[in-house]
Amino acid sequence: MPMNYSLVDIGANLAHDSFDDDRDEVLARAADAGVAKIIVTGSSNQSNVQASALAESNPGVLYSTAGVHPHHASDYDDESDALIRRLIEKDVVVAVGECGLDYFRNFSPRDAQLDAFRRQLEIARESGLPVFLHQRDAHDDFIEVLEPALPDLSRAVAHCFTGEGESLHEYIAMGLYIGITGWICDERRGQHLHDIVPVIPDDRLLIETDAPYLLPRTFQPKPKTRRNEPAYLTEVLKTVAEARGQSTDHVAQITTENAERFFALGQAVK
Question: CB neighbours of 105 closer than 8 A, spacing ≥ 6?
Answer without folding.
Answer: 71, 136
